[in-house]
Amino acid sequence: MDARSDLGKPFDNRHFRRLWFSVLISNIGSMAQVVGAGWMMVIITQSDTLIALVQASTTLPVMLFSLLTGALADSVDRRRQMLAGQMLMFMTSVVLTATTYAGIVAPAFLLACTFLIGCGTALHLPATQASIRDLVPREQIPSAVALNSMSYNVTRSVGPALGGILVAFAGPAAAFAANAVSYLPILLSLLIWDSPRAAPTKPREPILLAVATGVRYIANSPYHSLLMARAFLFSFAGVSVLALLPLVTRDAVGGDSSVYGALLSSFGAGAVGGVFAGLRLRRAIGNEALVRATAIIFAMTLIVLTLTRSLWLTCICLVIIGACWVATMSLFNTAVQVSTPQWVIGRSMAVYQTATFGGMAVGSWFWGMITAASSLAVALLSASAFVVASLIPGLRQPLPSELDFDVDKR
After folding, report:
1. What is the mean pLDDT of the chain?
2. pLDDT class for 77, splitting at 50, 70, 90?
3. CATH code for position 128
4. Does 405 fall in a domain?
5. CB-based burial of residue 58 (10 Å sphere; 0-12 exposed, 13-18 middle, 19+ buried)?
6. Residue 80 falls within a domain, yes or no?
7. Same structural domain for residues 275 and 358?
8. Is the full-model pTM beyond 0.85?
9. Which of 109, 129, 226, 371 is most buried, judged by most C-beta within 10 A?
10. Closest-CA residue to 230 (of 361, 114, 395, 99)
11. How does residue 202 score in pLDDT terms, banded at 50, 70 and 90?
12. Helix H or strand E segment including 331
């Protein structure tokens, strides 16, 4: 069957279709809010540290709280958990919009608001990921995961552009207002949600015990432990491109903010293409071969990106890198989804998110330090070597050719 028809199968389920499109709209608003918050901090302070903390305050809650919220996703009604996370983000965005229009936003207040929005993300994300198993048949999980990856990367292309336009013509408050409005479709979708979740197969545990059980499950499973390690290592190395892209824009191609937006869009466009290519290549060459091929292509393209000063060639490189990035990360995501029993799926996805977000956070800091200590070229070339090195754990236990684990019947 054609990869495109396979990819569209989950949309036959109205609950998945409704959730996917509403999350897409919400994520576009969130990306616009990130641009607005970053520019707002530039307006109200001259501190480089505070400006950098805007991004950190958004992602830090996901790293800190994913294990707890993942345990919740295995213990409570996932619809209610998603609704709580979205309501927290909506209310925070409304407050931020009002205070910005009133002209009373201080740096600490802005950081607090972005942190609360990050907390909402940490609350809803594991429940959303785990709900895939409730909404689509097992054979459609890879396509559903790929569609979610495509949604995120579409928003990474569209959201910043929308945010930039709103900030340029109407100020940061307009971006915050757009973000608040973007939550309304998903709130409505969750309020009318009538899809029953799978019956729990284990009695409810105290939350801390549930977290410990989830971590112990991963630790006692060599397959899952290796998957988490591989996801961490690949995200640690691969995030170098996104972390250093502003410097590539300024120093390598001599561009401004509009060029930076074009480069980000190139990465996002490649990521969308990687969804289709990844599904097709998995069938053609197998899962482990796909991971190895994308890592090698990623590394070679990163070398070209380091050496070129051409804007067009840089855009082409980013299209290729974006495709490799999403093909690999969506495959790791799928591998976790289909190999985990229903009773621990929320916690397993939370550990996976902690590994990937942790790899990106540590990697962003590390490659920035390497650049400061040496040069942009040294950092990017070193990152290309690390991308290839991330394959080493897979030599010990390659991914199986078929990700078809009937774990809930064991």
Report:
1. 83
2. confident
3. 1.20.1250.20
4. no
5. buried
6. yes
7. yes
8. no
9. 129
10. 395
11. low
12. helix 311-338
List the one residue out of 137, 156, 163, 128 whose CA is nearest residue 326.
156
Exposed / middle / buried, residue 252 (Cβ in 10 Å: 0-12, 13-18, 19+): buried
Evaluate whether 88 touches 116 at the Cβ level (below 8 Å).
yes
User: What average pLDDT does the segment 262-282 reach?
Assistant: 81
Q: Are residues 7 and 153 in the same domain?
A: yes
Dist. CA 235–CA 15, nearest whole Å? 31
Distance between CA 85 and CA 131 in Å, rounded?
A: 14
Tell me which residue range forms the domain holding 116. 1-198
* Cα 206 off chain centre by: 29
Q: Is 199 helix (H, G, I), strand (E, B) or coil?
A: coil
Same domain? 128 vs 251: no
Chosen domain end from 156, 175, 198? 198
350-382 exposure pattern, b = at least 16 Cβ within 10 A, e = fewer:
bbbbbbbbbbbbebbebbbebbeeeebeebbbb
